[in-house]
Design goal:
Structural class: alpha+beta
Strand order of the largest sheet: 1-2-4-3
Order of helices and strands: HEEHEEHHHEHEHEEHHH
Number of domains: 2
Helix content: 40-55%
Number of strands: 8
CATH class of the largest domain: Alpha Beta
Strand content: 15-25%
CATH topology of the largest domain: Endonuclease I-creI
Mean pLDDT: 94
Shape: globular
Length: 248
């Protein structure tokens, strides 16, 4: 199957929040996230998978306290496996499919990055309260944007950095070495600053309201309070609540 931007996004979603196992003849793909991401799954993920893979999925609640989709389809599990996704635990071995990594199509690259960001990435804003040379606004308000990806897979981390480079989005990768011998090294990719966030939104974007409303609040008010819910951010944007009354 030819790689498209839609399929690349599906692979990014699976790389972030998916699990594939052998179960009977068909196999199983399980993709789910936080309950607050229900709107993202209902309005985007289900439609993306159904349209691209010719499925008839409905999202559901899981007993483990998550929300998402399950696919029982041999053709789909074989497709994912053919593109390099393993059955069973993938945390240490998951990587960007080579067809995406080697692609010169910027929409394909953006699709994968959007999928993994919307499921396993993070957008947040920090202040500079410890530095007195900054203005009072910058010391009190979370105004400085950062996008983070965290993984224990070195190949995935290096693949993400490579894709970002193809979009000319500068990033920094750091490695955390655990004290315990039975723990894995953690790779963190960070994209920081206003210019890089705006470039990300222009080239990659986000379909997940949990992530995108943070950007919209920041864009409207110049900062985004921490520890807010999706509903609170929507209420801020709709003028229903005062932005200064939340995230305290």
């Amino acid at each position: 199957m030819k790689i498209t931007s839609e399929l690349a996004e599906i692979f990014g979603i699976h790389a972030g929040d998916g699990y594939m196992r052998l179960r009977g003849k068909k196999g199983e793909i399980d993709i789910s996230g936080h309950l607050e991401e229900k709107e993202y799954y209902d309005s985007h993920v289900v439609l993306l998978f159904n349209n691209c893979l010719n499925l008839n999925l409905n999202a559901r609640f899981f007993s483990r306290g998550t929300y998402g989709i399950v696919i029982y389809n041999k053709k789909v599990t074989s497709l994912f496996n053919d593109f390099g996704f393993p059955f069973g635990k993938k945390s240490l071995t998951v990587s960007v499919p080579k067809e995406v990594l080697q692609s010169k199509n910027l929409k394909v690259i953006a699709g994968f990055l959007r999928g993994i960001f919307d499921t396993d990435g993070n957008l947040y804003f920090r202040n500079n309260q410890s530095c007195e040379r900054y203005t009072l606004f910058k010391r009190k308000h979370n105004y400085y944007p950062l996008i983070n990806f965290v993984t224990v897979s070195r190949t995935l981390a290096e693949g993400i950095v490579c894709l970002l480079g193809k979009l000319s989005i500068k990033s920094f990768m750091s490695i955390s070495y655990p004290k315990a011998k039975d723990c894995n090294k953690v790779y963190r990719i960070t994209i920081s600053g206003v210019e890089r966030l705006e470039k990300w939104m222009k080239l990659v974007g986000s379909k997940n309201p949990v992530k995108f409303t943070r950007y919209l609040v920041w864009k409207e008010f110049g900062f985004c309070p921490p520890h807010t819910t999706l509903k609170q951010r929507k209420d801020i944007l709709n003028g229903k609540i005062d932005i200064n009354s939340v995230g305290l």
